[in-house]
Amino acid sequence: MPIIINTIEEALKRLRSLNENNNQRIIIGIVGKPGAGKSTLTSYLLENLVKEKAVLVPMDGYHLSNKLLEEYEKADRKGAYDTFDARGYSELIKRIKSDSDSDIYFPIFHREIEESIVAEGVVLKECKVVLTEGNYLLLDNHGWQDVKSFFTESWYIQIDDDLRRERLMARSIRYGRSPEIAYKWTHGSDEVNAKVVETTMNNADVILAL
């Protein structure tokens, strides 16, 4: 059964304890439905982990390009589990776990342009704590199945769905979608993806009931 944590302060305390009691690089996989607050949590953790030499590696950098999504006729499903380079992401996390002798570069996704920029992020060789967040880190098929084995721990964020959808709507509008399109995306594609993510909750080591 997953451990239950109720505050972000408890999450920080747990992460620091893991780091203090482990000589290896710590990798925490943070999972949640779209709009669950993954970015908010990771921002809080990073702000308080300066001396631990922490870095964030988002799964979103492995979005397939808009060009490929158009070619594969998946543009209207962008964000679904099969619209990412799952194997590429898995290999990145595997290398982060096993290679502490080299700086490791990774792509970062930008919502304002809806594309990723290659090698924009870096895990420095001296980095001790790596946070990685995304929707499908606990999925056990479609190329995602090996990812969990590379984590020190996996955390799943569980929050009220109405609040989550409100956040998604606001985020979509902030990045230029009309309220009508934002509503359609939030209650359409994003909701389908959310149901997939929900099926993976019991695969987590820790549930953050925030």
From TrEMBL:
<dbReference type="GO" id="GO:0016301">
    <property type="term" value="F:kinase activity"/>
</dbReference>
<dbReference type="InterPro" id="IPR006083">
    <property type="entry name" value="PRK/URK"/>
</dbReference>
<dbReference type="Pfam" id="PF00485">
    <property type="entry name" value="PRK"/>
</dbReference>
<feature type="domain" description="Phosphoribulokinase/uridine kinase">
    <location>
        <begin position="27"/>
        <end position="208"/>
    </location>
</feature>
<dbReference type="InterPro" id="IPR027417">
    <property type="entry name" value="P-loop_NTPase"/>
</dbReference>
<keyword id="KW-0547">Nucleotide-binding</keyword>
<keyword id="KW-0067">ATP-binding</keyword>
<protein>
    <submittedName>
        <fullName>Putative ABC transport system ATP-binding protein</fullName>
    </submittedName>
</protein>
<dbReference type="GO" id="GO:0005524">
    <property type="term" value="F:ATP binding"/>
</dbReference>
